[in-house]
Amino acid sequence: MSAKKLAVVALSGGMDSCVTAAIANLEYNLAFLHVNYGQRTEKRELKAFNDIADYYNVKNRLVIDFTHFKKIGGSSLTDENMEVSKADLTSKEIPTSYVPFRNGNILSVCASWAEILGATKIFIGAVFEDSSGYPDCRPDFFQAFEHAVNLGTKPETRIEIVTPIIRMKKSEIIQKGLELNAPLHLTWSCYQNEDVACGICDSCALRLRGFQQLGVDDPIPYKVIPKYI
Question: How far is Cα 105 from Cα 109, in angstroms, rounded to an integer?
Fold first, then answer.
């Protein structure tokens, strides 16, 4: 049996969560948790999750279906009547792709599973660079949530929420992924397409800009590849 402790990784199937998993894999046995929440690219993200789990040979994986986000609405990722905004990397406004308190919901189910498994860590690939648009990506949010988790679980339970890439730029995240041989070719980041990435949504733009800043080709297919630098 491995002497490594167990960590739960919230794995969306995107690049950030993949690199986070690669970092966690250095020191921990892994349990992967994925959430379907009615997003436009739900099937493609689930495929990416399973492909990455296979790559790391993770047997302990859990897929949770959230139905409430689609009912609540308010996000272009879950409401087909809302248009996914084109990328504006200079904007400080909350984009239409914001899913209200999504990370809080995901962390809650991660905490429940971590307590049952006896895991000591929850890894999540939040990035502070995105925080101007997504308020649940701020470092102080995760600090406060960790405190709430440890107040709301058994006295002997101690769970740390780990955000190893939160202060990295996308180019730094990609570089870390390349150093760790993370399977970036298996990831999916596009907000609106499941076959070929659009290249123009916020998520595609942030990802492409990171690759372009490094002078490295992104290994996934795109419908268009604008210059973001």
Answer: 7
- Kindly state the helix (H) or strand (E) to which residue 162 belongs, with its residue range: strand 160-162
pLDDT tens digits for 49-90?
999 999 999 999 999 999 999 999 999 999 999 999 888 888
The number of distinct structural domains making up the chain is 1
Q: Could you tell me if residue 83 is inside a domain? A: yes
- At residue 45, φ and ψ (nearest 5 deg) are -65, -35
Contact by Cβ (8 Å): 40, 192 = yes
Give me the residues paired with residue 122 across strands.
Answer: 8, 161
For residue range 112-126, list pLDDT tens digits in order.
Answer: 999 999 999 999 999
| Burial of residue 61, with CB atoms counted within 10 A of its CB: 0-12 exposed, 13-18 middle, 19 or more buried | middle
DSSP 65: E
Q: Is residue 171 part of a domain?
A: yes
Closest to 143 in 3D by CA, of 92, 107, 106: 107
Q: Is residue 141 part of a domain?
A: yes
CATH number for the domain harbouring residue 184:
3.40.50.620
| Residues paired with residue 32 on neighbouring β-strands, in sequence order | 9, 61
Is the whole-model pTM more than 0.90?
A: yes
